[in-house]
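Troubleshooting: if your tokenizer reports a length mismatch, compare your output against this known-good record of 295 residues.
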Amino acid sequence: MSRLVEARSVTRRFGRATAVEAVNLVVEPGEVVGLLGANGAGKTTLIRLLLGLLQPNSGTVLLFGSTPSLATRARVGYVPQSLGLYDDLSVEENWVFNAAVFRQVERSLPDALSAWRSSLVGDLPLGVQRQVAFAVALAHRPELLMLDEPTSGVGPLASARLWEQIRQAADDDAGALVTTHNMEEAEQCDRLVIMVDGSDAAEGTAAQIIGGRTVAEVRTEDWPRAFSLLEQAGYSVQLHGTALRVISTAQEVERLFSAASIAAQVDGVPANLEEAFVAIAAGSPPGRRTATGAR
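Known-good structure output:
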């Protein structure tokens, strides 16, 4: 089967600022690809490039094997961060308008949204608005979903339901490209692409992204002082119960504690996805990709 969307060394500049630099990305039928990165990493700009809403300064974008166009975009279900709904229309009016745009045989509003049928979208809580946007994006049975932070502001139950729908779409052979800051959500993706400062810094499964990375796990009775010392020294540190997890080597942490006369047990342990992400974001040089997409 052909690739649904592909970016080949795509770069986009705004004046002197480079928002996306030499990015490569592919989404195949039946897979969910997670796009991770801090705010300003270039995720939304990349999605707009893939849809043809922006033109690259260099590189190539293919949507269903050809240059993005109205015809190819009609095969995509897109939920932008702004949701793409009309606040001054009701839920049902948004639904009917979307059906007319895609020239589809009108389908009934999903039962899950019937309680808000006559409500203006702008009057609804953000979580409900996102449910409406997602339902509208799926209504024409797209072959590719592009979802920019689709669960932001949504409660755990609604988020789980949205991810069930994403996975069901993939099981039906659609592809999905999803941006998220939630590492639990990221672990549900088949592959991940991590963007740092506009570049694709790492690509692969969650296990491949983590690879052989380790962190220092610290156990000490004086953990408040240890925590403060690590933060002052500029380390990324998290408290798990009374154990500290530090993005560093055990040897470096031991040296720091020895100089400060802190008694502690320090061991190297496997990193989790969030820790791997932080390490990549902090340490990957621009334009350098790790994991399965090394170049």
